Model the fold of this input.
Amino acid sequence: MVKRRKRKISPLQSHTPQGNWTETVLWQTLLKTRDPKKADVVQSLNSWMPKIEKILASGGTPPTAFTLHDHGHSFRVAQRMAEVIPNEVLSKLSAYEIKGHERLTITTGWAPIEKEKGELLQSGLSASDSGSTPKEYLPASDRKNLEAMDKARENISREMIRTVRWLSQEGALRNGLGRFRFHIPYFELPGGRSLVFLHIKKTRNILEVQKLLHGLCVSPHQNTLFSWKGMLIRTDDKVFSASHSDFKYPSLQVELDFHGEAAGSLSISRTLLNLSNEAAGAVAELRSYIGEYVQRFIKGNSASNYSVLNRRVCEIDDLPVVHPKWCFTIGKQRNVKWRNIAFPIVSGNPWRYNNSPCKVLWNGKPVQIPTPLRGTYKNDQFETISFGSRPEDL
Done:
């Protein structure tokens, strides 16, 4: 164990002027280092520190040791750092570590949201089934099952990332209220494009639906991000909820950045925006635009084997499908295959939560029962997509 020598931290009286920043221990340490990048760091500090001190000298804050920002602020911070950092560490710092982080660059434009996109994909995938009990306290057999499920989730995530594509669009809200950007994920599957993720195994012309944890599909959720002049905020108005539109949105990531004064009023905390009537109207126009955009996608992919599924997800009834297909459970092995819909057929809704019967007859003729597409959660009663539950389906 390395013993640290205790050093007495000298009191720096913040209300009295301090020395120049070039007199600090950190600066002297930097000059003595043999780091090959020292020259670049020295040049950068010589360029920026005088300007920083000038700005700090112009500010006025209460004259306390903690909050005062005057021309001696940089000196006090650098000195404190040198006094707090142990000698054995201080002597080994590189030129860039002494200088600190690289200069912050701020530009206009949308921020990358790859992290948010990843979270959107994961939103429809069930979490661990361990509940509140730590894994180490579970029986060995339960731990083994959980590890197998976690591995299955990783495999599903990789397959989703491999097959996902994004429909992205951006533009301006009316009357200069702000800008919008949205991203809709869809999946390039064997047999066509789908707004819902399915693990399809294709053998010749047969499409077999593979099980995904406790279900058959993953349908990512919807997420809306609001900002005011680029700063993340909240709003009380659930502008993309189902109650605001006859159109049911698929998985969707929407970003709304308001910067017009007529957009609404900010709370005192600057974290909540109450939308004005004009802004709410602009958002309603955006909802309609996204709905039309998704309908064009569904119509343009009507030849996909999953066109009925795409239509069902968005509850669109007026887009005809020439060769409708759905999944059906076949035989005692209960293999699920994606195939043509044939009549007679009954609704699969009664079997949303239980296995459908292997064989149903009507007047001696076999009747098809479409298999409901359950999500990956163990008790997923609300994420099930069933066909035949409405007259419009049939």
User: Anything to note?
Assistant: The first helix runs from residue 25 to 32. The chain is about 30% helix and 20% strand.
